[in-house]
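Pilot study result, target chain (389 residues):
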Amino acid sequence: MEWIRGRTLGRGSSAAVSVATDLRSGQVMAVKTVEFSRLDFLKREQRILSQLNCSRVIGYKGFDVTLENGNLMCNLLMEFAPGGSILDTMEKAGGRLDEATAQFYTREILSGLHYVHSNGVVHCDIKCCNILVGEDGIKIADFGCARRVEDVFGGNLAGTPIFMAPEVARGEKQGFAADVWSVGCAVIQMVTGRAPWANLSDPLAAIYRIGSGDDLPEIPRNMSEQGKDFLRRCLIRDPEERWSVNELLKHPFVQEQKSNPKQNSRTPTSILEQGIWDTVNDPETVESPIRPKIHRTPLQRIQQLNEVSTNGPNWECDEDWITVRSIGLEENDIVSVMETPCSSQSVEMASNNEVGDQDYINVSASRSSDYCSRKREYGSYPLAKIIQK
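Predicted structure:
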């Protein structure tokens, strides 16, 4: 696939999400980019996302490795959600959502999770900024922390502290029930504008209190009785007693909301969470985009993406575009790249950065690259020669 990268929409500690356009079809996409040394993280997300196909889950478009400014970059191409995240919608609505809108979003989140869980996947990081708003409803996104249920063991923390279930905070198995707890926390945030445990500013303090105490997140007083009961079913400390997604889909709180209430969505401004909001074990977490105006031709789409509006978002990294071409690494080749040893001498062909003695090409992350680099066109790069050197 030949595609062009547009403006950066959000950044994490080691990842960036940009607008991208397929030069053949003109399709607008989102692309999540990390340095090649982070391939293992992106590869895990790619493996899970590529096996899911549901209207309530962000769509997988492909995987690509490119050479940009002398650095090998890994790119996960995904569906582009036009409405930003639920968090963006909340900000546009004045900081929180009315209960009817929260009901609708909650039902769609549960519908998506039902599909994800039925395919043996635990998301591990459900929260409002990881739920995107598409033209046909919400999309569960950011599977950077996701695991197959058979691969989930105790001892490893994954997720965002204030959205973690008690068993996760204690280092126990992170199963489907943990996602249900996170849904309850997300509903609280939707209707109040504040996440649970908002008085805790330290991640370790939050993990300790959630895991070892008997406290529960405060249920909003302004919610209906059905809403309060729904949250009580989500926020049961014992995961064995907590309701399943399938049971929650039959709860009156979500069953009575049938249509999509009108909500204005806000263009995000690359608001990246810090501290208590950071996702544990997910350095690639980034915020979500809002789709630009759609035009008929690819050229018009690209021109629209490059326009600057005084009323638009304050994007970071607003330099010129680069044309990106695949260097020939297909999805099935990812495993072989990870498992193929290479010497530091062979890596120097692609980068002057120091490398370790890992089992994959390790481009040091010590030098920060600019994902929106100056306009430059790259041809195909002989990655096979690097691997076989």
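One observation from the pilot: The CA atoms of residues 73 and 130 lie 23 Å apart. A full batch analysis is planned for the follow-on phase.
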